[in-house]
Amino acid sequence: MPKIQKYNVHELVAQEIQRYIEEHALKEGDKLPSAGELTAMFGVGRSSLREALRYLEAVDIVRVENGKGIFVRDVDTFRFTGKVKVENEKKFLLSILDVRRALEGKAVELSARNINANQLKELEKILQEYKRLKDSGKDTSQIDLAFHQHIIKSSGNPILESVINSMSGLYQKFFNDPLGEKRLFDETYPFHHTIYEGISQHDPERATSEFHQMMDIIEKLIKTY
């Protein structure tokens, strides 16, 4: 039996906006309904709509002009099925990767300095579950996400955690079927262990070095996909 695909609300809203553009044959420069009209049309909250628009802006499908409205940017940036073209998704992932380097890299550094014994034990359990899933050939995307989220939480900086959480929908795109291939980043698996080692040894320099090496590999994989 196939697994049921999980979607975040903002992803569904983004798909509906793309469908609206297609069904109404909108062209570049055409104006979409207002934010208020879109929330009423799709029956969602403003936060979900904002997240959807952020994503669509990131992949050059729409542009949002404050005080003016929401406009179609490029009707050729999505397929008739509503799927974003690979090249645009690559651009989006690379943009988020830059943000990850800055914000999550700092979280790794702080985690190596501030993590407590209980948090370290939990991170170790996550790694063990990661290994079990990987060895059994099962999907590891969500446990991978849990690993990174736990590091962010153990950074001990609630403001940094809040900033990263505020863009969680975009961030999670890295782990939810990136470029249509859940196994795309399997090559980074060993770095989860070396990052853990750096954090467990309270060695910020080693932990962040391993993290940035992992980001380098991800960047190369995305560019050459």
UniProtKB/TrEMBL annotation:
Residue ranges that the Swiss-Prot or TrEMBL entry lists as coiled coil: 113-140
UniProt cross-references to SMART domains, sorted A to Z: FCD, HTH_GNTR
Residues annotated as domain HTH gntR-type: 7-75
Gene3D superfamilies reported in the protein's UniProt record: GntR ligand-binding domain-like (1.20.120.530), Winged helix-like DNA-binding domain superfamily/Winged helix DNA-binding domain (1.10.10.10)
SUPFAM superfamilies membership: GntR ligand-binding domain-like, Winged helix' DNA-binding domain
Keywords for the protein's UniProt record, in alphabetical order: Coiled coil, DNA-binding, Transcription, Transcription regulation
InterPro entries in UniProt: GntR_C, TF_FadR/GntR_C, Tscrpt_reg_HTH_GntR, WH-like_DNA-bd_sf, WH_DNA-bd_sf
PROSITE patterns associated with the record: HTH_GNTR
PANTHER family membership: TRANSCRIPTIONAL REGULATOR, GNTR FAMILY, UXU OPERON TRANSCRIPTIONAL REGULATOR
Protein name: FCD domain-containing protein
Origin species: Paenibacillus germinis
